[in-house]
Design brief:
With 111 residues, this protein is mostly beta strands. Helices cover 0% and strands 51% of the residues. The chain is globular.
Length: 111
């Protein structure tokens, strides 16, 4: 199992980023995908989950209406579109599937 996140960076408050998670080594469509984040000094927490076929989604209250999770099973890739970013969204974002994690991608929201 390999998960590789990308798309993080530095963005101003109110800005947008799209994270990607490229997966390999397992049958991608068989598994839900969850994006997590871990802020400095805090625990890793789930942000958004999408079901294996992409029909069901779930979001943390803190990101509802601002973040959108999606996946393209034909590309073995998942996404997290993040809009209206706030400084409190600053964290390392991880993709989790099939019992594994990626290496994470840093998102920093600052003016």
């Amino acid at each position: 199992v390999q998960l590789v996140e990308s798309g993080g960076g530095l963005v101003q408050p109110g800005g947008s980023l799209r994270l990607s998670c490229a997966a390999s080594g397992f049958i991608f469509s068989n598994y839900d995908m969850t994006w997590y984040r871990q802020a400095p000094g805090k625990e890793r927490v789930p942000v958004a989950t999408v079901s294996g076929v992409g029909r069901a989604t779930n979001y943390a209250d803190s990101v509802k209406g601002r973040f959108t999770i999606s996946r393209v099973n034909s590309k073995n890739t998942g996404y997290l579109q993040m809009n209206s970013l706030k400084p409190e969204d600053t964290a390392v974002y991880y993709c989790g599937m099939a019992g594994s994690w990626g290496q994470g991608t840093q998102v920093t929201v600052s003016s």
